[in-house]
Write a structure and sequence with these properties.
The protein is of the alpha+beta class. The protein contains 4 helices and 7 strands; from the N terminus they run H-E-E-H-H-E-E-E-E-E-H. Helix 3 packs antiparallel against helix 4. It is elongated, with a radius of gyration of 21 Å.
């Protein structure tokens, strides 16, 4: 190996080591699963699946009951997303955690023309992001994933209201 290659490898190793030196705060280690946020699917009970408006309103109300503010929603497409919520967990002053919820109603496209398609599933995603910001140097660390505690709580609530047994 040439001297230039060795120096380049060492620079990369130092960069990687310093990047991974910061880790998720311990208080988040039990709730934030690192990686891409996942969608959980909840099958809808047959006695409410044909009531699109009821399923939609239940999803919206559930988000509001859990103190999430709606950022955007489109009833006709069955999609809503909340404003990122940052008061979930109290962290040290230079760490910030926020959670954003997305909901998507999945409909049966084999319905009769002119009728509202029955809702077969409710898809739920709870994206989480934690950052470490130095006021002088800027972003020191950032971790993305999903909040498994909020995901489970919302999923169970929606399952009790809409889900199949």
């Amino acid at each position: 190996m040439s001297r230039r290659t060795i120096v380049a490898v060492l620079v990369v190793l130092v960069s990687i080591t310093s990047l991974f030196a910061a880790s998720v705060p311990k208080v988040l280690s039990q709730r934030l699963v690192l990686g891409d946020p996942v969608w959980r699917e909840l099958p809808v009970r047959s006695n409410v699946s044909g009531q699109y408006e009821k399923v939609w309103q239940t999803a919206v109300d559930t988000m509001l009951e859990h103190n999430f503010e709606i950022a955007t929603m489109d009833r006709s497409s069955g999609y809503l997303r909340t404003i990122p919520k940052s008061d979930i967990v109290r962290l040290q002053t230079d760490w910030y955690y926020k959670v954003q919820v997305s909901v998507k109603l999945v409909t049966d496209q084999n319905g009769k023309p002119g009728e509202t398609a029955p809702v077969t599933k409710v898809r739920l995603q709870v994206a989480g992001e934690v950052t470490n910001v130095d006021p002088r140097r800027g972003l020191k660390a950032q971790f993305n994933g999903y909040d498994q505690i909020i995901l489970q709580t919302l999923f169970q609530d929606l399952q009790a209201k809409l889900g199949s047994v």
